[in-house]
Amino acid sequence: MRWRRTFFALCLSASSVTSNTNYVPSAISAERYNEDLFIRPLLDGKVATTFTFTTDLLGNVPQDSESFGQHYTLFPLTLGQILKEYSIAELHLTLNSGKWNYDHWGYPDDPSVGTGAELWAWMIDGPSATVDERWTGLRNALAGLFCASLGSLDTRRTSSPSTVFPISFSPSTPHALRYANLPSENVCTENLTPFVKLLPCKSRAGLATLLNPKRIFDADWHGLSVHLRSTERGTELKLGVQAVFDPVRLSGGRRRGLLFDRIIHDSCSVAASSVVRVQVPDDQSYTLSPASVVDDKVMAMYNLMTQAPLDVSMSWPHEHTFQYPHVHQSRLTPLSIQRTLHGSSQIHGHLFVALTNNRHHDIVVGYFENLPALVTLWMHTMKIKVDSAERNELISNVSYHPHQVLANGQKSPSTLQAILTIPAASTLHLSMEISRAFLKYTEHPPDAMRGWDLPPAILFPVCEPAMGMCGMQNTSSGIQGRMYTPTLLIDLPTPDFSMPYNVIIFSCTLITLIFGSIFNLLTRTWVVVRVED
Hints:
11-stranded mixed beta sheet
């Protein structure tokens, strides 16, 4: 019997496609909308998918509150109002769930893959309101728009690491950066629903029809992103959805199954382009249907505006069971990251970070920590070791800002920023002592015994003045983009919240017995009752 192992199937059919696919109505000539879906198989049998919905405002600047009105056709009006109200020049918001596996999956298409919610924005420093007031209004507005707990990104989690998150253009006016993250925030359907409403065709047509919540949120990793930046042509808005599916898990050991379990009946009529790209694997044992023009045997491209209906499938006819590769063969990034907390005490502990260089040359990266006042880093205990030998010369440009008590009584986060040099084919161990905070009983969350989530550390490319370029371009000695470590769960000194209830129960029982006895003595009358024979 012949076995056919289908890797994935993507059913696409467009029933109403105009003859001129590049036609855009004159009313939206200043706005341009494009759709793109990128699918690539991974070494461990999983499939990474990236939806990108791009809207360009040509010659329009929403953050300028005086030069232009807000008359949009494709650009979401709700976002435009927020940008205008708070003078936002650049905005990045991500909501992710899961841990991105750099070793097996490589670099993501969108580098912002930190667990939880991450928000950073460059704002124009205008005279009407301070930057902190605009930051507070921006957080609350986005929280209401996307149904997320972004209001919790207050001064206890906000910092300004301009080196880690540089602005994407050269501003002519003063700008200020605000950054915050919330690792405990989860992404779910109530975030996806308002996200889809920002698209011109919603989920009724186009690639957004494939955004099936049952499939997206069943993926091993999934996330939503909103990226807005100013360009030479105007303003660019990118709405993205990333997910890593596991067909092997869903099909019982075989690479088979539908990814999205949905069919596109209509293409988005206002889209200038709608493309599906499939990355072709290195092995030649697969079959791809239907046949497509493959650029240098790397990419298969399908245009939904002209190729409809479309059913893309990739199969391995001679594969009976998927064989997982060895770990050492699947490290696709130059660095492997581990970050852990050690120590059995509830007051003291140790933070350990292990960076393994998988290349045969030194790698220079930046290291950034943004920790809330739950923990305190003791910088004098920092140690850098390679092969059990101290190598303190491998760390430079150390900048540490401890938490401070603000005017509202809250404590600002502590930030640590440094440049690390990881020797070739070796592991660098960074360790330092920490102290856990002792909170008031009113400051603990409802699930206090679970612990607190610490945000991930960030590795970022650094500039090399000698070569006149940054690590993002010079990938031979650095990394391509930001890399996020896993989040940590820290156990703080927690009171026994059951004791108040025990005291209340014991006190109420004692009072009841005493009160009942005294009440009976004061109110009950003893009389002689004669019983007749």
